[in-house]
Design a protein that fits this description.
Helix content is 36%, strand content 13%. By secondary structure, it is of the alpha+beta class. The strands form 3 sheets. Strands 6-5-4-7-8 form a 5-stranded mixed β-sheet, with helices on both faces. The structure holds zinc ion (ZN). Zinc ion binds next to loops.
């Protein structure tokens, strides 16, 4: 989990500063450059950082009347041209960088997420544009799979059913299981599975949880067999109204963190989006996991973290749909 920095001055990013100081294209681009290239421009084609072969900014020639494209650099190694948006989720977007920055801030600061409709009204862009922007942003902040660092220590695992439309009987059939895996006091991961089976739960655990962890679940029988491979498996029996239990060794069994996460996720699904398709649910769940993993940060710091994740994550409209 990322933790707030002491220096509150660093927290310069909020809707006021974005509107007042970074609304012009040039200022917004400079801000993005300062965040993505703190030590100078890096060529996205050959990764030249300009230390031995300096990258130069394209400036208009003296006396020339033709305008030069804003923010274009010239690589000192591979001689290619590039801008700060090449190779990021912003590449090929016609939306000004200033609006992109606002979209990132809004997503990072909305605890229960935001719908494409609302984003479209707030940023004065078409619904389809807002929808695609949100999908690109969710793609950016989704954790790498498998996780770089496995969850360890006391880990809670639980599943819930999300979505479903129509009359009751068909609604339940259309609901999608989401598994949450949460390290107490640390990071979390989510997995959307087709069914809650030993095999699917085992795969999720294997991808996300270190084998020396103590894993807490409810009494669902599908956890028993896969969790034999883990150091310890503690269960609480919900059917006997047992939600937390203090053990003799001082540890606490329970899955309250998972319950908190699911209540947030469901408020997003029913409050902001109304309906989420099975295909898109993993991205929505990851968006919530990102905010969970950065819950110790201020909104501005969370935005900086999100900006740091936009590189190497291009997403085309075809891939998004
Ligand atoms: Zn280059």
């Amino acid at each position: 989990m990322k933790v707030k920095t002491e220096d509150s001055k660093r927290d310069e990013l909020n809707l006021i500063s974005l509107a007042q100081e970074y609304s012009s294209d040039e200022k917004a681009r400079e801000l993005l450059e300062s965040k993505l290239w703190p030590n100078g421009a890096i060529c996205p084609h050959c990764k030249n950082d300009g230390k031995t072969k300096p990258n130069s900014k394209l400036e208009p020639k003296a006396g020339s009347k033709s305008a030069v494209r804003k923010g274009v650099y010239f690589c000192g190694a591979c001689r290619e041209q590039f801008t700060v948006t090449v190779g990021t989720i912003f590449e090929g977007s016609h939306v000004p960088i200033g609006k992109w920055l606002m979209a990132i801030f809004i997503l990072c600061s909305s605890k229960k997420s935001i719908s494409a409709n609302q984003m479209s009204r707030m940023l004065k862009v078409q619904y389809k544009t807002a929808w695609f922007m949100l999908h690109r942003l969710r793609h950016a902040v989704s954790p790498e799979m498998p996780l770089n660092t496995l969850l360890k220590g006391e880990v809670e695992v639980d599943e819930t059913f999300v979505g479903g439309k129509g009359r009751l009987c068909s609604k339940y059939r259309r609901q999608t299981p989401v598994v949450a895996l949460i390290e107490r006091g640390g990071n979390m991961a989510t997995r959307v599975v087709s069914n809650v089976t030993q095999k699917n739960l085992g795969a999720a655990l294997h991808d996300c949880v270190s084998k020396d962890a103590t894993v807490n679940t409810d009494e669902h029988t599908a956890y028993r067999k896969p969790l034999k491979d883990w150091a310890k498996h503690n269960t609480v029996v919900h059917s006997r109204y047992e939600y937390t239990r203090r053990n003799k060794d001082g540890t606490v069994s329970g899955i309250n963190s998972c319950e908190s996460f699911f209540s947030l996720l469901k408020r997003g699904v029913y409050g902001s989006w109304h309906h989420v398709s099975r295909e898109h649910l993993p991205k929505y769940a990851n968006e919530f996991a990102f905010r969970w993993n950065t819950r110790g940060l201020t909104d501005g710091e969370r935005m900086e973290t999100a900006i740091g994740m936009v590189t190497g994550k291009r997403l085309t409209y075809r891939q998004a749909t």
